[in-house]
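INPUT
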Amino acid sequence: MTAADEAECKLLSDLVQEHFGLSFSGVRRDILASRIRPRLSALRLGSLLDYYHYLRTHPQRDGELEQLVRHLTNNETYFFREPHHFDIVVRHVVPPLMPLLKERPLRALSVGCSSGEEPYTLAVALHDAGLELRGVRWEIDACDLNPDRLARAREAAYEGAALRACSDDALRRCFDERDGRWLLRDCFRRGVRFFEANLATAASLGRPPYDVVFCRNLLIYFDDAGFDRAVRVLARTLPPGGYLLLGHSESLIDRTDEFTPVWLDGAMVYRKREAA
Amino acid sequence: MMPSATQRLAALDAATGPDRESAILAALEDDAPTVRERAVRLAARYVEPEVLGALVADGVNAARRNGALSALERQGPYAVPHLMKLLGSGDSAVVMFALQVLARIGDPVSTGRILPLLEHPDANVAQAAVEALGRMRAVDAVPALLDLLDRSVWLQLAAVNALGEIGDPRATGPLLALVPDTLVAEPAVRALQRITAPESLGPLLDLLVRVRQRPLRDAVLEASGVVLELHPDAAALGRAFGHALDPAGRADLTGFLATALAGESASEVPSEAPAQAAAGIALVAELSELYVPVLRRIAPGTHWAEPLWRSRATVTGEQVAELLGHADALVRRGLLLAGAFGPAALPSLLARLDDPDAEVRAAACRAIGALGDARAAGVLIERLRTSEGEERDEAAAALGRFPPDALAGLGSCLDPRAGDAVAIAALETVRLAQAQAFEPEVLALSRAQATDVRLAALRAAAALPGSRTGMVLFRALADREERVQIEALDLLVDREGDKTASALIGLLSAADSLRFRVIRALGRLRAAAAAPKLQSLFISAPLHERIEIVRALATIGQPGVTGFLRACLDAPERELRHVAALGLARAAGPDDLQTLLLMASDDDWTLRNQAAQGLGRLGLAEGRTTLLTLTRDVEPVVARTARQALALLAERARPAAA
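OUTPUT
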């Protein structure tokens, strides 16, 4: 990348950070440039600088910003990804809440849910644990900033990579095949609700308080300030003692006083501290 | 409670006056990487090399030392004099660190000071000096580095690598002498691969037969492949090599090359290089038993195999017939895509149009097109009409290579009743062949209902000279679809001509969504006649158009434009200031030096960046001090631009000094 290309990339990465809180600094600028190329082509613009000016000043910039975010967010996800987290919910989050769960549903939030694989996997895990038979109901709210992905999540029809960690048994039990796509059965879709939200800009998310919040592989996109802000927003969604589950490469250690790290079944999870 | 990283970052940015240096130095060892990174940037800008050099000598605090090293590197040429002083330090560690930083900065001035360190009593310092010279590609160091090839293995290894990085052919013989029986044989081969001296090809091919142990043989294969690719007479040398192989040697070599072609390298990192090298050797040495695996490599995603076959393969008519009838569709397709066929091959190629595999049929269309034999036009037109997807596209492209008078039968495909997909493909043929005879059909289809047909018709019209087709393009500027308007505009700009510019200037009066693109187009056309109208429009236009006006005027470059651009630097909108600075960086003359110097101290990094670019382009010695300051800019992009600009200045100064 030449210095001139680098300067254009920096202008765009600063803009993306300003609008969405997503960080594409340093070597990640190459990723930004490659994800933006289809938009340059669609708008018949010649350079990243043209696109930057379009996003800053063109009358149709708001619509284009929406298009941009669809291209920027990594939609990489699949059913049963990092499955130990779902076991932790069943084995450690639910049991102490059982007395309460006779009166109210278990409440979970999936942040950055993309096309729904994560919240649906949680529904499958809760279902498979036989909690329904013990009178437990659940409400799983799930949000993402990409409306296209949310539409696909509501459709709940999957293929290929999304199902790569699904065993044959799970595939048969949870899905119906139709025209080469796999439709999640209604019993697993019940209680899962999707809504649009941006963790980088939202003051709060969904309908707190939640018993457990999944926010996996999303904080890696934030710079320090965005990270701190996002953690504060996540903290507001949980009651004291509530669980926050992050991706394996994400950590809150030395980053916040609002959560305590807890080692459960070989994985690090976080619990919201009691108010001082 | 300890302040968060964000708070520490803010405090660091806020530090000024005498407190700033101590705040920066303390932050060099902050726990948070982002704070350390910001401290390095600020240290490069605000801390003198002498202070940073003292931290390099601190053997206890590694965090601060690493931060200081990064900051010195960021300072670039500004730090070089002090780093050269550090080379005389009695502390070996300091000398090594200074060498590393100098190597990364890459200032050629320092090589003379580094050369004596090759004989430093501390072997680690000598090794670091070798590595630095390699990294700096110091050609002057080659004789001294060659002298190190009989020293201890570590120095030997460093020297071999450095010679490879420098790439001087004087090292070829001494490096070949290290293969195959020394500890540094494999690095020596890798170095030969980087040097690519033609005289190394023969010895490398001989080694390919003689050497049997895998890691070294893989290295020899890749090196041979690279040298062969750049060799001026590879064909003759390769043929002689192939013919000289005895049966046992040939069998062993083809077996080895076949594994490489199948992607079975011993390397842990997947790479196309071994397969590419094996294919190149197989083709120049005429190892025909490997033609099938080479042709299998001509597949989507592999870009090297097709041109390699085209430039290197020598095949007989008998072999062509055999390969075209091969059971593997990949082989048939590969040959059709890459082969060079003579007129006698037409029947075999036409036969492949009935191949059971659609991709082979598409490749056959392409091969027939390359042949350009008008007798095939009717068959291809029929193919265009009846096939679909890639096959239809290839038929259209193939017909586009035929002389226009061979395309008489295409008319029926341009009939609206033929269907949109057929019409689009036929229009593409008209465009490629510039078949003027179909102008009436093109004009008719430019009014088609389907947008994609209108777009294809516009592209075809743009390829046909004449006022009627030009009119179609102008009319399309008012099409109901914006993407048709934009396409028409781009096509008009590509056609250029005075009429285009004057018509576009006329469009500036309409304040519609297209005007922004019209302004861009006038810039691309460098339409001097548009300048007054653009300037008058500037006052009332919305911001996104004003930005385009500034860019267009800067590109058109009328006399006095720099005055306009200077005025724009005072605009309240950042984007406007930015494009004005961009224009000044490209158009500034000596009279604009003061403006560039002012831009260099602007708070906005984009202006400083353009100042660095402009000063480099201008090449005036008066800009050097400012550029030196900008090489230490807190924004790495600006520092990088400034370094490139300084290098430009040095380049211009060299012939003058000579």
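end of record. The two ends of chain A are 50 Å apart (CA to CA).
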